């Protein structure tokens, strides 16, 4: 791929988004403007922004790569994420808009009073946001390094962090919203173009594409049918992995902080519902297109060719340092003029674009992927900043007495700290499929946040003690199980299932219920009726 074209594409997108940030800067001088864009975002616009938030690098790069490598099993990542929005639409969106202000903790603290409840809710938001940002930055590093090999993926991660900070620091929620809208539009356009080119390759015959996908080449001359299940979720715990993953995907969306705070940006509950409806339409279209791109990458590019490619001197140097692979790599170098030392499913989309449309289309698609990462990371940074500045600093440390200037200063300082932490952790997790990483984060969100949100809204006896126990229990069990699973310990895993949701989500609910029974709260029960009236009718809601 040609460096000059890539730099031009990247420069155009970054230039447009910086102009948007400059125009939005004047609207982000207060807490209300910085966190919620003054609640002036319309339902349609917010729907596109939610879609932009949700159609992340994990979807565009990660899930497409999983479809290319694992076919039917990889596509389960797309369907699970889509189903999750039904939970948001039916149980959370309207109620959250009517009862919250800036953060998820506002909803929980509406009737569950106490400093500890808000502190634990903020901690949960910070942990989930940082972990989600890590997955996005890993994808950003892979894409930039592919297009600009002279830049290491470490430098690419630092560039993503710096640009994301610029959007959030100066433009707040308004700039972040418009960046997400622009990015969602570009993402759909590039997905339509790539899917159309895949169909052109097969003479507009979906049957021919599926036939090719039923016998793709794997390593060592083997072949596989991507249309059949059982390529990813395999072994004695394969079914448990699939069940655990599906449960996490279905519930995790309702616990993602950067998605939840989008409902505070609209003027009414009706606009919140329209936001979810529009988001579901856009995301549904996108996930259908992912199946075309994933199967196209598998059948046209080939799994063995998806990864960072080394040419000429770099290839010769690599072969010299790996004599045990010399015969195969020399043959590849002669046949293709490059070698792929290590497969990387995150690169399926840009390599498909390069194969079908040349370097110009690859540069455009990669710039869109880069934009996707920037937009999602910016949204996550807003969520993390508001959790610390509004929940911890303003409400707990300053007991609600801080002024606007101090609040904004803390929010922006938090953004810097979160960016640095995420960048450092991202560098250590390079090489993982970003779709897989995000699947783990869905499990953490579903375990820590969702039980408490649902029980706060729908169980009269629910107490502050139950909220604290549920969030800490879900958070600790999900992260702990990941640490002792094959993800954290490889072949020495103590917990055999990669996704912890099947255990940690029930743990979150059980801890919340036990905590409530052990520490009942009469005041919280008395507030339940007031919460219901406000959640359903919007009376007294922030406008």
Write out key terms for the chains shown.
two-stranded antiparallel ribbon; 22 helices; 543 residues; 4 strands; two-stranded antiparallel sheet; globular; mainly alpha
What is the element layout, followed by pairings?
Elements: H1 3-24, H2 31-36, H3 43-54, H4 57-70, H5 72-99, H6 104-109, H7 115-147, H8 153-201, H9 206-213, E1 216-217, E2 223-224, H10 238-252, H11 257-260, H12 269-301, E3 310-311, H13 312-321, H14 326-336, E4 338-339, H15 348-397, H16 404-428, H17 434-448, H18 450-458, H19 464-483, H20 486-489, H21 501-518, H22 522-537
Antiparallel strand pairs: 1-2, 3-4
Provide an overview of this structure.
The mean pLDDT is 84. The N and C termini lie far apart (50 Å). The strands form 2 sheets. The chain has a two-stranded antiparallel sheet with strand order 1-2. It has a two-stranded antiparallel ribbon with strand order 3-4. It contains 22 helices and 4 strands. α13 packs antiparallel against α14 and α15 packs across α16. The radius of gyration is 23 Å and the shape is globular. The chain has 543 residues and is mainly α.
